[in-house]
């Protein structure tokens, strides 16, 4: 009896339950249908969302406002020079200005490709790195020098940090300043500036030779001669010599021993020229640089000893041991002669151009200096007068 009763109750409950489930399903379906109809009324494109295939089979133009924001225009035409990140920005940054710290910059500049072959047409360039305080007084002469040789050179300016003047757009010096810091004569901040210039120039993978110049420097030949002389040289031009006098060996600090010994100690001109290999070595040096910064302070002038000593000790084959920037020390003192308006004559410039003997790629050469210093701003007019004829610039 109780079993019969129980089975009847169960059957009834199941029937009621089924009924409840059916009611719920019908209710939900009608709600969904209502929503569907409402949606279709609100937006007659709604159907196209529900039908998934529409995304693939209808033309993209059917939904112009909906898709232009989520799909890049690159989908239709990809071009490494505009929208997408390409090689161009990596091998040759468009702007000189950037937000990297010195530490970040040196690290980035020290990168060397593991694949030797370049995947682009590389025309080697000469990087002209100007270490100046402010405006370049002889800029018109340099403008004349560079004109017509675009693609074969790069220019970098390290100035006082507060100097913000920008020359006209037509000048080769327009937007060529790099992020700069204060420089003190004879101190490590001078080397920091040189390394900063080298590092910025190394970011352009086409730069092959790196020349350091000052605001009082002038070129002694036309661009083609200087370009070929540097590009074809198998060594850099960084002067180094052993000076036994107090102003040479006398500046050696025993605390550098044994890393740097007295017999390693060298002196040389600050105004160097480096090939890419040497430039990379200089920005990558984190071992010897701090040693000099801590133990070579005035009257030890770091710019006269750090590179000559380190390069002679570790990369002696990379330099010819001579500088290509002519300077007149014959008048004595701790600064070289400064030339004035009346000094600039054809004969005077010719002596610097051809009055010496030196070795170039293992052969004797009379072209030993490509640049000269120091020229006072008042030499600009006489220089502009003699330059076209003497230096063979295009007038
Ligand atoms: C890439 O874009 C640049 C600049 O917009 C244009 O000059 C060049 O012709 C484009 N190249 C290709 C292959 O589309
Ligand atoms: C560097 O010079 C030394 C001798 O001065 C020579 O033995 C060596 O082969 C040279 N190295 C290179 C890479 O030219
Ligand atoms: C430069 O000087 C170093 C050491 O004084 C020497 O080993 C090297 O051969 C010199 N290089 C040239 C090209 O004379
Ligand atoms: C350079 O060498 C040539 C030939 O040996 C010689 O006549 C000339 O006087 C030398 N010049 C200098 C400045 O030493
Ligand atoms: C540079 O080239 C000259 C001439 O070919 C050669 O005698 C000399 O050894 C080379 N120097 C280096 C460092 O390769
Ligand atoms: C550079 O000077 C040399 C020698 O004076 C000359 O042969 C050459 O044509 C000049 N180049 C230019 C571009 O003026």
Q: How would you describe this protein?
A:
This protein has 395 residues and is α/β, with parallel strands linked by helices. It folds into 2 domains: 2-71; 94-390, no CATH class. The protein is 38% helix and 9% strand. The protein has 14 helices and 9 strands. The protein has helices spanning 2-42, 46-50, 54-57, 64-67, 87-91, 102-109, 139-146, 188-202, 223-231, 276-284, 288-295, 302-314, 346-354, 380-390, and strands at residues 125-131, 153-158, 207-214, 218-219, 273-275, 325-326, 358-360, 363-365, 371-372. The strands form 3 sheets. The protein has a 4-stranded mixed beta sheet with strand order 2-1-3-5. Helix 6 packs across helix 8. It is elongated. The protein starts with a helix and ends in a 5-residue tail after the last helix. Residues 46-71 have low confidence and may be disordered. One 2-acetamido-2-deoxy-beta-D-glucopyranose (NAG) binds at residues 79, 81-82. Residues 240, 312, 316, 320-321 line the site of one 2-acetamido-2-deoxy-beta-D-glucopyranose.
